[in-house]
Amino acid sequence: MAKNKRKHHRKPAAGSMAPAAKASMSAERVVATLAGIGLLITGYLTWVAWFGAGPVWCAEGSGCDLIQQSRWSRVLGLPVALWGFAVYAVLLFMATRMPPRLKRWQRIWFVSLVGVAISLYLTIVGLVSLDALCPWCLASLATISAIFLWTAIKRPESAPGPAWGTWLLNSVVVTAVILGTLHVYYSDLLSPREDPRLASLAQHLTDTGALYYGAYWCPACQQQSRLFRGASDQLPFVECAPGGRNSSMTLQCVNAGVSGYPTWVINGRRYQNVLTPEELARRSGFEW
Question: Rounded to whole angstroms, how far apart are CA atoms 158 and 149?
Fold first, then answer.
């Protein structure tokens, strides 16, 4: 009579882990490491923004310096770097504290997608509006991009699921809404309507022969123009560097002896700094 052979299953040794669990832990460890690098970068930039010091490797007048001084370096009065720090902190928390499930992967993927989109947007804005790039910002962009790509590569077997297409579409739409809101915030579309008094001052400056020398990429010039809100187009502005930050100054500005932006010439006197509307009114004889 044949004897039934009992099959003996080997129990996993104490402390051993399944391959899938090990792979998941390894993937999240990479995300956590990259998020830690991002925290160091954005934490340093936040400290620099709060204490007014220039970042290392950012000489005065460099592209990095221009970006750090520009209005695109802040959102709601807080440094952009601080918002980036918050994003990396959230990613680090997700990678180390949330249980290894599909939801964790989805959330890390979505947060890193939003981070990549905002970083790319600000990089493009810096190139178009300031003709400048910031090495520190590019380092952060590379870090958040690495998190996003690594997360996409290490997608769990349970994704995509039945509702993958809907979830992906929703993620893209929400990201687009966030970018659109950020663009509206920076584009001054929500700024107050044109102030008649500012418009009258701008016209007075033009009528009295005052000149406002500047460059489209100059953060201080952008600050000066924003003081006039909707009336900035009526200022007697002279573009000195239409070819960009590294282009030669126009002959008109060279002949005027312009050495920095913005430069005002009012009643034969020169002022090389941002002037408030009240100061401009006083120096030009306008009854404010």
Answer: 18
**Residue 244 backbone class (left: φ over 0; alpha: ψ -120 to 50; beta: rest):** left
**What string of pLDDT tens digits covers the 288 residues of the chain?**
444 444 444 554 444 444 444 545 567 899 999 999 999 999 999 998 888 777 888 877 787 888 888 888 989 989 999 999 999 999 999 999 887 777 888 899 999 999 999 999 999 999 988 888 899 999 999 999 999 999 999 887 766 566 777 888 999 999 999 999 999 988 866 666 668 899 999 999 999 999 999 999 898 998 999 899 778 889 999 999 998 888 899 999 999 999 999 999 999 999 999 999 999 999 999 987
Domain boundaries, the chain: 21-186, 196-284
CATH topology of domain 21-186: de novo design (two linked rop proteins) (1.20.1440)
Distance CA 139, CA 259 (A): 32
Phi and psi, residue 213, nearest 5°:
-90, 135
Bridge-partner residues for 75, per DSSP?
Answer: 78
DSSP state of 265: E
The pTM assigned to this predicted structure is 0.75
Residues in Cβ contact with 186 at an 8 Å cutoff, skipping those fewer than 6 apart: 71, 72, 125
- Classify domain 196-284 by CATH number: 3.40.30.10
